[in-house]
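Figure 2 data, in text form.
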Amino acid sequence: MNSRIPIFSIKLCTALFALVIDTYGQINESKSQTKQETVLHVSVVSHFDRPWAMGLDDLNAFRTLTQNHPMMRWTHLYNPVAYTQLTPHYKKIESFVKECRDNHGAEIGVHLHMYESLLKKAGIKFRNAPSMNAQSVDTSHDDTGYSVPMTIYSRKEIDKLLNFTLNTFKKRKLGRPRSFCAGFYATSIELQKAIAANGYYVSAAAFPPGNEFGARYAPSWHELAGWNKTVTVRSRPYKVSEKSILPIGTAPYIKAKDGKPIIELPQTCKIDWMVSSENMKTIFKEHLKFCKQNQMSAVCLAIHENNAAQYLEKYDDILNFIDEQILSNAKNGILVRYSTLSSIRKSFFENEMNQLKGQK
């Protein structure tokens, strides 16, 4: 395993100490600032699509990124299918995500694909069509269930699956998940209401369908996912409406169990195979423009678990860039902060409250 710790990371930690860092690597504004500063959040999200395909080289790649970038905060969107079909390294994978949570301030959320073994364990009838990864919806199918959208299942079936997932997390001591993303980023108003009713606070599904940066999904995805051109690489976190899953949605909003709306965190940088390191840097700079206008924003860097070794160099490069941006922008009153999805939601409402106070 590559265990190097760049000299820059050591310098970064030393410099950030002067800004007063709390135990989760986030700047304590009440201690270090005399005025409200604008925050650009950077979320680093792992999508566990096929846990059985995650090799030890992939796991070592995740460990390397964690070690090389000590300020980084993972949100691991973990998949309970690791326990419903043979997954050779499930114990080591589980140990790693728990270690990230316990020692590195990470969050463990949920990622679900509609695999037959998972649905069978949850007591739900499996469907093999349509597929979100085909040229046409009409004739599409996927006998594995991997690309079948969660949105075709009934609310009762979705609730059963979410309940099975929660019970699995409890049994495996993975904690109470608060962040959620369905396979292929599919969602609907009904699914958003279901995750809110089942105790989730954050959806990480809004996905830019365009090709301004990087590749696009197959034609059937664009028919089934529910997203349109109102979601772009420049989209910022937003409250989810009861009438629309899109950023243009208005009140009333879908409420989570804590009484506040659920938040949608757009997947601004798409995912590993779709974008280059330079694409991600450019998108980051686009969001930095919002912060220079005193507007909070967030970017999302996403990677599949079974692609970690393949894309290690790419993600090490983009995270080195983010580390550098933390230092350079702090001098200009902009806080670039690694954040979990749930902490971004908390910051969203704090920012909203501060804006209301500023208007009085």
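Caption note: The longest helix spans residues 312-330.
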